[in-house]
Amino acid sequence: MLHLFKRSILSLAAFMILPSFLFAQQKETFPFEGEQREYYLHIPKDLKEGAPLVLVLHGYALPYDKTPKTMDAIADREGFVVCYPQGRKDYKNFNYWNIGYPVHKNETNDDVAFIKELSKFLRKKLSLSQVFMCGFSNGGDMCYLTALSSPGFISAYASVAGLFMVDWKEKYNPVPALPFMEIHGTKDGAVRWDGDYQGADGWGKYISVKDAVGYMILHNECTSMSVDTLRRKGPHMVIRTKWAGGRRTQVPEFFPRSEVVLCKVVGSTHGWQEEDMDTFEVIWEFFKRYLCKSKTYFEDYSLEAVSGPQMVQGDLKH
Predict the structure, then answer these.
(1) Could you tell me if residue 308 is inside a domain?
(2) Would you give the DSSP letter of residue 33?
C-alpha cells in the first residue's frame, strides 16, 4: 500500500513539473518590445511533431474570452495547434491590433512583428511546421497587413470582416504568392462592403471588399473562376467565389497554385458569420490545400514567389 502511495506521489510530481505549454487552452506570455504579451494555446492530445499552427486573431475589444473556440474541435480532429494571440490594450482599455486606425495614431507597437516572433517561438518550442492565420474584424485587418507587409512566414490567410486600407496599395509591394480568403456580410455596418474611401466612420480610409479581393486576384495572377453556394444554415445565403490557377506557392514537395476565395454572406452584418455558415470548417478546408504532405519542420520556412501563368481577371459581380 505504501509502495502504491509513493508511486502516486511521484506520478503527481512528474505531472506538476511538466511545462505548461503541453496542456490545452493555457494562458501564456511572450516577451516582446519590453512587455509580456499574452496568448492562449489549444493543443490536441497526442499531437504529432510537424503539426501546423493556426493563429486566430480577435476583433477590436473582443479578446480571447469573446472569441469563438470552434477551431479547437477541428484542431482535435485534424491534429494542429490553435493559438489565440492577444492585442495590447489601448487608451480605452480595449484589446486591439495596431494596423493604423486614426484613434491609434500615437501607438508604436509593431503587431505584425509580434505575430511573426510568436510564431517562430511556438514552431520551435512545439516542433510545428507551417503557420496559417485567420482573424475577425481588426484581426482580419491584420491578415491583410501581415500578407502585404511581411509575407513569407504564413502559408495562407483568412479574413472575416477585415479591411484593406487605401494607402496599403502604394505602401507595400509583396512578392510571394498570397493564398487568401475573405468572408464578409454585405450589410456589415462596421467594415462596410463598399468601403469607406473618405474615412467617415473613423477607422481610416479603406477600400471595398471587391477591390480588396480584386487586389489579391491580380497579385496572385489567378486564371480561372468558379462559383457555388454553401449549404444553407441560417437566414442568409453564402455565395462562394473561387479564383484559382494562380502563381505557385513554395509549400515544399507539391507547390500548390494560389487561390483567392470570397464568401459573400448576402444581407448579413458584422460577425464571424457562424449563424449562416460553418465558418471555421470553411477556413480550415481552404488552409488544407496548402499543407505540406510530409509535415516537415522547416527552420526557415518561407513562401518565395514563383512565376505563374498570365492573369485572367475574375468577375467580382457575384
Answers:
(1) no
(2) T
Nearest to 42 by CA among 77, 89, 91: 77
Q: What band does 252 get if pLDDT is binned at 50, 70 and 90?
A: low
Say how many Å lie between the first and final Cα of the chain, rounded.
Answer: 72
In a domain, 123, yes or no: yes
53 with 83: CB under 8 angstroms? Answer: yes
pLDDT in tens, 267-283: 999 999 999 999 999 99
d(CA 20, CA 53): 17
Cell of 312: 485572367
DSSP letters spanning 163-231? --BTTHHHH----S---EEEEEETT-SSS-TT-BTT-TTSS--B--HHHHHHHHHHHHT--EEEEEEPP
- Coil vs helix vs strand at 71: helix
Backbone angles phi, psi at 233, to 5 degrees: -115, -35
Specify if 148 maps to a domain: yes
Q: How far apart are CA 267 and CA 258, in angstroms?
A: 29
Is the pLDDT higher at 160 or at 9?
Answer: 160
CATH for 194: 3.40.50.1820
Instruction: Report how many domains make up the chain.
Output: 1
Least confident window among 126-135, 200-209, 216-225, 302-311: 302-311
Q: For residue range 284-311, list pLDDT tens digits in order.
A: 999 999 998 765 544 444 433 322 333 3
Please give the grid coordinates belonging to residue 167: 494607402
The mean of the pLDDT values for the chain is 87
Residue keyed to cell 469607406: 196
| Rounded-to-integer distance, Cα 31 and Cα 37, Å | 6
pTM for this structure?
A: 0.87
| Proportion of the chain in helix, strand, coil states, percent, rounded to 5 | 30, 25, 50
Range of the domain at 93: 23-288
What is the Cα–Cα distance from 288 to 175, expressed in whole angstroms?
Answer: 22
**228 belongs to a structural domain:** yes
